Amino acid sequence: MTALVVRDLVVTYADGHRALDGVDLEIGDGESWAVVGRSGCGKTTLLRAVLGLLPPGARVTGSIRVGGREVIGASEPDLRALRGRVAGYVPQDPFAACDPLRTVGYHVASAWRAHRLVPPPGRVDAGLTAVGIDDAATSAARHPHTWSGGMLQRATIVAGTAHDPPLTLADEPTSALDAELADDVLQLVRARSGALLLVSHDLALVARHADHVLVLDGGRGVEHGPAARLLSAPSAPATRTLVEASVPYGRPAPRTAPIGDVVVRADRVSRTYGPVTAVDDVSLELRSGEVVGLVGRSGSGKSTLARLVAGMERPDTGTVVHGSGARRRPGYVMPIFQDPVASLDRRWPLWRSLVEPLRARGRRLTRASARTAAAEMLERVGLAGLDPGRRPASLSVGQAQRVAIARALAAEPALLVADEPTASLDVASAATITELLRDTASDGTAILVVSHDRARLETWADRVVTMRAGRADTAVVEHRGGHP
């Protein structure tokens, strides 16, 4: 028996965008498949179609059979019975998957409550412990906003595989995790699932955990086959582009621009959330034209320190001082958030979000000129041809991330604070964005980058600071040139 059969699947969104066009896929019991492709190629749409979770107005034709059951045209009660127990789901955006007013433990336990079941005693805490969450009972009683993105992603994996489903659909389940933890978590997902359909931009991860690969390009399946063969000898141009972009990163490029004045100085800052000390007595300084990377395990305090440096949160102790004029010029500090979809107003067309920094600085724009300016910004981040009138909900997470980056750069900030700016991007897009940010630093912007991808950071950052349990490990600060 097959776990999933997709035949001639076509998905067209309400705005007329055809996200999938004639896709075929068959996954046998116990098989592990990966779907790869550029951001916006239809990977997430495929998973949502299988679960019957497409947005209102989407038109679907073809056939999708999960465990022998036809999904297209199925009633909502039948789909609810399928989700979780027959087809588990690990979404790409863990923050959106959680109710912000409920605890993380409640979120995990909802995997049982959705089917009118009671979680077995100790099962929630045991599941969180199995994915590396320390002191699971205490952590589960906290709310999602007090968890890091990587930690919350692991909790969502526990919820998505709670019933050991015959099929698990995992959409970028490890994008915010370091490589060692990513392998451990995916091994756990495979152990708890009969078959796996994995969406990932990490081709090395795909090679280690998938038996077969389907490559999507522009909503169409352009190549499929055994992972070992396809990733070593690709035939489709789209596959070759991905494989070529995923080769090991080269040596750091030499610095070409001088490092300037201090843009921000954090002096012995600390931040606690209840009993948890997220940042503990950390000092950090960034200068004009400098790129500083923050790395560390999930929950080590990277994102909290970034928010403190950006001025989005106040430290409990210590001080954060921005350069002169910081409070007078709009856009002096611009963030790129870890959750790009939530950072864009869902009610606004893209052009309105993109030109918001320009208008904040006093630039007068007609509707037509605003759309033209937005189109130019989109082209700069590799989204040429994307309609500026589209809404964020119609984008992939990777596309939304590039829109958020374009908006931040439009403000010409003195300080850019980017939390996992390439985590949701395919390898080719990530390389483009990395080059764009490096060029931005060369023009004088100070950049603080939070990332789990140390290897990529070391090719373009001037310093890489490792966070461990809320503290900055200054013994492993590495320099690429410029200010020591």
Automatic annotation (TrEMBL):
Topology in the lipid bilayer: Peripheral membrane protein
Location in the cell: Cell membrane
Membrane-spanning parts: none
Domain (ABC transporter): residue spans on this chain: 4-243, 264-479
SUPFAM superfamilies: P-loop containing nucleoside triphosphate hydrolases
GO molecular function, one term: ATP binding
Principal location listed in the UniProt entry: membrane
Keywords: ATP-binding, Cell membrane, Membrane, Nucleotide-binding, Transport
Gene3D superfamilies xrefs: P-loop containing nucleotide triphosphate hydrolases
Keyword set includes ATP-binding: yes
Domain of life of the native organism: Bacteria
Family the entry assigns: Belongs to the ABC transporter superfamily.
Protein's name according to its UniProt entry: ATP-binding cassette domain-containing protein
